[in-house]
Amino acid sequence: MDEYPAGSLDHNLPLLVVSGLTSGPTKPLLTDPDLKEQSILIRSELPPLDSREAKTILRCIQEADATALPWNPQDGDKKHRFKIKTIGRDFLLPPRRARLPEDFEAPLSPPVLHSPFSPLSPGSTLYPDGLIDTRWLSKHQELIPSICLCFYSLTSDPTLATLHDNQLKTDINALKNAISRSGYKCRLVAVIMSDQAPDSMGAFQERLENIRWGTGLDPKTSLFVLPTRRSETELETAVDSILSAVFVQASEYYRELGRRSRKKKGRGIAPQPTIPPTSGTSHTLSLQGWNVRYDFKAGVFAEFRQEMDVALRSYEQAYESLFGQDVLETVPSWSPRFNHGRLVADTLAIRILRCLLWTGQSTAAVRRWQAHRARTSDFLDRRGRGTQNYGWQAWEARWAQTMANLIEKVEYPELAPTSQSLFRPPEKALSAERLQPWELLHHPGYWYRTAAQHALDRRKLAHLIPEDSRRAPDVSEVSKSAAKAYNSFDTYMCPEPYEEYPLDGEGTNHGRQILTYLNSARTEFHKRQQVRLAADVALDAAKELELLKQWKQLLELLTPLWRDMYFRKEGWLDATESLSWILRRAAVEADQADLVVALDWELLNSRYSQQPNWHYDLTKSLDNVKVDQRPEITIRDENITSFLTSSFVFKHDEGRAGQTCPAQLVIKSNAFPKSPPVVLKSIQVGFEGSVRTLHLKHVPNSGQEAGSRKILVTSVGLKEVESEAQDSDAESESGNRSTPSVILQGEDDLTLYPGQTRVFQVDVPLREAGEAQASEVTVIVAPETFQLAYSMKLREDNAIGLWYTTTGRVKVTKINAQNIKVLPRPPKMEVKFINVLKQYYAGEPIHIVVDIANEEDIDAQTKLDVHLYGQDVPAFKAQVEDGDSQASTGEGEEAKLNGLDAGTIGTSKSTKATVIIDPINRPTAYDLTIKAWYNLVSDPATPIVQIVAFQINIVNPFEASYDLVPRLHREPWPSIFDPEGIQAVTEEGEHEVPSQPMGLAQKWCLVTKFGSFATEDIRVLDLDVKVLETQGAARCTVSKNQTLPADGLTMAPRTMEEARFDLVAQKLSLDDRAPSTADLAFTIKWQRASGDRPATATPNSTTFLLDPFYVTVTEPRVLASVSYSRTSSPSSSKIPSTVSSSSSAGAGAGPPLILLDITIENPSNHFLTFGLAMEPSEGGFAFSGAKATTLNVLPVARRTVTYRLLPLVSGGAWIRPQLVVRDKYFQKVLKIIPTEGMRKEGDGFAIWVPDNVDEDEKAVGGERTREGEGDVKVESS
Amino acid sequence: MATSIPSIACLGVIGRHNNPLHTTILPTTTDPKTGAPAPLRTPLQFSLLLSSTLDVFASRARHASASGTLLSGDFGLLHAVDDRLAAYGWETNTGVKFVVVVDMRGRTLDRTGGSTASSSKSAAAAAAAAASATGVGLREGELKVVFRAMQTAYVRLLQNPFYDPDEAAAGAAGAAALGKRITSRKFAEEMRRIGEVWVPGSVNAL
């Protein structure tokens, strides 16, 4: 926009001249010497004010200058926009009328003189057919003020008041007259400053009135009083309000001028020039031309008034007329007026654009922008020299740049860099239309870029200028070529072809121009974080710089971009490549050796396109580069990609310290197929964790034909060497050099052919436990001219590791194969349980023997930890053979014995430890863990642990069930008629009671059935029932009824056995007849039958606790007991059974005689009467005895009734006597309780009729029978 | 008089890590020397153009996350690089971006000779109708059909068990792994077809 004449495009602001506020020198308004000569002087005679307040006010006014404001209607509270000029006390106005030329002959009639800026005046540059030019614009903008703001002071000295006031009046009147005499309509506004405060101004009212009357100034619009004794802000407000009021005046002034233009246009005739043109074509401005002029003026005046929509209309009219039939169309292209017309058109178009942008119509503005271009291009194609020339491209570039400048000036908030939006949404009226995307106003960066594009095109076209035209006209045949050039080249606002692109010497610096545009664009894009687009522009700029050979600048521009460019990071290869090659050329020129090498390294990758005729040989990289010393370059894969990729794979997930793990280092080359092989000097693999740095050195292998192979797997032996020995290796890191550390070193031929995958298989020794991972692979290339170290990070990207085999096959191993977990040294101490039994039983102590065998090569100092976990851990102890022993009481859920010293176990020796767990009474399970801690004698610091665990399941070996059945106690009951028997209680007292129980005794039989639940044979050694406690003052004794075999009873698994115990309970006192109970415990003493253990070992005992039983009862009961006799005669009943049995032995055959005793016990205090009724049996038996009888039983006594039964059935059967015992008083039938040799059947009982009495007596137990016999005898007698 | 209507100049598929996956360049102008259809720009220029749209994607995403508004897939107009070429964008929720570069004067409709670059008569007729009705602009959302078609094609590509999108998107792992592009011929053909068939005002699925 700067290329257009100054002032032609400025936004017009009312010119305000401030007079009388400064005494210092000021810039004169009118500088043109021609005009100055005829100028009109406007001068005030009063001296300028020079007070402090005056300076403040002047500053306020100058700050209100609106020239630098953005071109938009700021909706601020400022009501005025002025261009402010400060003058002393006088200024010059340009002449209203132009003078006649000096050589002019006086015409017949007096000539009509016009303004010197009009095409009518012969002295004007526009004479005779120009349209309008900047001088007219600047006349209004710079020379003729709309308002002349004169400052005066009002003296407060009453003695001088009248004199002063009169002077003031005179001066104002003189000024007024001078202005009106000049013919200009500019307004005079007087401001009278007083040094008083605003509220004390009343005193001066009369004087001010006087001045007002004397000058005829309106106090509302043109005479202001400004009391200055107030604060600065108040003063500012006051000045502001004066300016606002004055602005109305200014608008009025320009409105008047605008009206005049319209009026002239309305006349509809073209005015005649002062003198008709005599030279040239004698063509004068047509009426249409005049209309353009008038509309343009009207537009400008509207703009002065800040009425942009009005201005827009006028400009559009002017524009249409200009391109209409009679204005530009009639101008021949060779005429200077042609380009002048174009300038007017451009000016109009730009002013139109500004109006549109001002009013927020950005999309309309873009359309207008395009329309003007199309119109101009069409016009040039028809009337001018076409658009296929550099001039048109120059204009296009300028046109795009103009738009960018306009957008910058307008400062749309939507397009501010902070707003993040790149273009402005269309105005509401257009948003529904189908819009071109470009019509959404983009930020200036895009426009600058377009300008750059056109500038490029301009250069292209400039380079096509034929040589003839490029010769300066004075050199060649002047007229001919000049004319030709003039005809064929558009030189509107751009140089002639011989200046644009001269044959010799500097022409237009296109490159500079393009760069300027590109840099502006790049700045805009950067501001909006469009980094990629900025890089794109930078690339274009770099190409220009390359042409200009500005290598340094180029490097400055591209190097930072290249270092971390998005294109590479995101894989835009073509962009990367393009940038890299430009940079490389620059780097070679600027002797940036490191950059050249890094670039070559990157460009060797075959994913870029191959440049023809490029050697792609790293060793030749620095061939044309001057270097002072051999450069050492270090690059990383984060910045620069490379044709090399690497991976490191451990074959196993885990390894153990002290062992080695096979691993593969894979280096893959992706270089261009025809490029020479790259010889690496060395490869380093850095590890994190305990693995040592791996170092491979290049050793040329003469007989290598390996280049042909795509995948080459070589096995490399590794040595552990101290890295200090590696002095020759310059690349070893400084850290390594200072502290001696061990590295793994190997040697191989490290030549890498293009496209080849080199696999180096190594056995990495693992030394320390912990996680380790290969973290970085560094390859070093060191030809003669430079050294390059390239590091590649091995990232945890969950990539799958590949394992190469020598056959060329690839196996997939695992993800993140560069990681390995190094486990501690494996323990070689063997700990095992020996002689472990299948099953452990409750009640037996558990012996567990552990064998600890040292299989290490060195003696080991060993300690044991024994842990037992489970519910209610029992006490246990542990003992080492010939050594330490410890015991634990065992409580809670866990018991430990720590640090049981097992001494030093020699290599391939072993020792034993025994853990003995106390017997446990219930089935449960325990975990026994034995940890053997040991350290080798050679390495006492490293503890090694071996752990074994064993679960002990404990089950009950037996289950048992019990039954308590009543028996008849044979002892006689104490008789209440025998005082001795019952006196003892009273005599002896309580303390003697337990020793001699005197109460009733009752007898029971405890039947226990127990089964073996063990999984093996068990030998039962003893059975026992113990009375743990009795309740209810009774004594209870148990006697064993059976004996077991001397060597015990062997029970097979899952078998049942029965045992009977007699139980006699006697109440302590006869008086106490409450029932009593007894708690019993049944104990089995047993051993495992499988006799590993010596028989002398203490037998295990398993105890069952029984539920309490009632052992004495108070209710009367009826007990039936039976005995047998061979004698059938009733008389023989009194013969003791021993006799009868002995005699019966001889008798042999015949059914036995059965004696049935019915004993009724009455332990109560009542006299009871019972009725007995025996039913005769039909064919079962015959009986003798009372069929029905009544039995009286005394309190605490018993009686027995005996029946003799003769079974009628053959032996080996049951008979069922139907006997009813009834309590006479309660009329209650008593149950008859069977005892030995009988069984219960329903309500009654059954009696066994044996075949042979002997057998049966044996079965029942002869001893008891004999006793019973005696008892019966007593009772019955 | 010949009317110019927009046509697609370039279709780009850009991966999650801003890596180019696919580019189809369509001729929208004629070679001044031979008169044969030719692309408006060089492949490198189109590549740079596609890359420059990533700035806009990033900026919009930043803006969206700052203001808390969720972005729908359609980014609409990303930017117009000059008065002919404009880039429109679409982002899938897996971060794959589709970019359509439209040449606003890509097709010339001659009243006499029909279209030069358009593929079918009906398309040309529809375009002519669209052009005569409202001029030769583009409405917001007029490219939705293109994006939908591209997405369909991309989804079809993903359904191919031999296509490994992770391999193509392994960008974060390291720059070395980048540069893997979509090699499916079918996909490329589909892209070209979409680019050729589309005319402004297309409403039916491509």
UniProtKB/TrEMBL annotation, chain A:
Residues 337-605 form the Trafficking protein particle complex subunit domain. Residues 262-283, 722-741, 1126-1147, 1257-1277 are annotated as: Disordered. Residues 633-1250 form the Gryzun putative trafficking through Golgi domain. Residues 1258-1277 have a biased composition (Basic and acidic residues). Residues 723-732 have a biased composition (Acidic residues). It comes from the Eukaryota. Residues 1126-1144 have a biased composition (Low complexity). InterPro entries: Gryzun, TPC11. PANTHER family: FOIE GRAS, TRAFFICKING PROTEIN PARTICLE COMPLEX SUBUNIT 11. This is Trafficking protein particle complex subunit 11. It holds the Pfam family Gryzun. It comes from Neoarthrinium moseri.
TrEMBL record, chain B:
GO terms for cellular component: cytoplasm. Transmembrane segments: none annotated. It holds the Pfam family Sedlin_N. One of its GO terms (biological process) is endoplasmic reticulum to Golgi vesicle-mediated transport. This is Trafficking protein particle complex subunit 2-like protein. It comes from the Eukaryota. InterPro entries: Longin-like_dom_sf, Sedlin.
